């Protein structure tokens, strides 16, 4: 099993920036896709951004142009740079990793809280 540890959340004013990190514990596993999700109170979890091992990225429309996902394959770590934060970005941000044939295996981190004040 791969354990994921997120960090970098916190409280920030609207317009500010935060950088989230998610590190995978097992370097021997070749992780295919790493994805950031978020869930605000009373709302469904939504995909924020994803990145494949080859560097292909995908973003939710609500964060395009403000958030940037990147990864360091040698460190099995994914980052989410969040700029121009808005109060509606407030949520618990969780990291997901998928690996194996057709991304069969999956693991989740415990989440890191991001709170944006107006």
What's the short story on this structure?
This protein has 118 residues and is mostly beta strands. The protein has strands at residues 4-7, 10-13, 18-24, 31-39, 46-52, 57-59, 67-72, 77-82, 91-99, 105-108, 112-117.
What would your notes on this structure say?
With 118 residues, the protein is mostly beta strands. 0% of the residues lie in helices and 55% in strands. It has strands spanning 4-7, 10-13, 18-24, 31-39, 46-52, 57-59, 67-72, 77-82, 91-99, 105-108, 112-117. Strands 2, 4, 5, 6, 9, 10 and 11 form a 7-stranded mixed beta sheet that branches.
Give a topology summary.
Elements: E1 4-7, E2 10-13, E3 18-24, E4 31-39, E5 46-52, E6 57-59, E7 67-72, E8 77-82, E9 91-99, E10 105-108, E11 112-117
Parallel strand pairs: 2-11
Antiparallel strand pairs: 1-3, 3-8, 4-5, 4-9, 5-6, 7-8, 9-10, 9-11
Features:
118 residues; mainly beta; 7-stranded mixed beta sheet; 4-stranded antiparallel beta sheet
Question: Can you count the helices?
Answer: 0
End-to-end separation in angstroms reads 40 Å
Count the beta strands: 11
The coarse silhouette is globular
On the 0-100 scale, what is the average pLDDT? 94
Major sheet details: 7 strands, mixed
- Can you give the helix content as a percent range? under 10%
pLDDT below 50 for ≥5 consecutive residues: which ranges? none
**SS-based class:** mainly beta
Rounded Rg: 14 Å
Strand content: over 45%
Give the H and E element order: EEEEEEEEEEE
């Amino acid at each position: 099993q791969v354990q994921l540890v997120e960090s970098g959340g916190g409280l920030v004013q609207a317009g500010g920036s935060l950088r989230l990190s998610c590190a995978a514990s097992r370097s021997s596993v070749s992780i295919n896709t790493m994805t950031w999700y978020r869930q605000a109170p009373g709302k469904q979890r939504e995909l924020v951004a994803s990145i494949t091992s080859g560097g292909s990225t995908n973003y939710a429309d609500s964060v395009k142009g403000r958030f940037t996902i990147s990864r360091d394959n040698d460190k099995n770590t994914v980052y989410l740079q969040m700029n121009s934060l808005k109060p509606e970005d407030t949520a618990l941000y969780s990291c997901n990793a998928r690996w194996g044939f057709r991304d069969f295996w999956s693991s989740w981190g415990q989440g890191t809280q991001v709170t944006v004040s107006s």
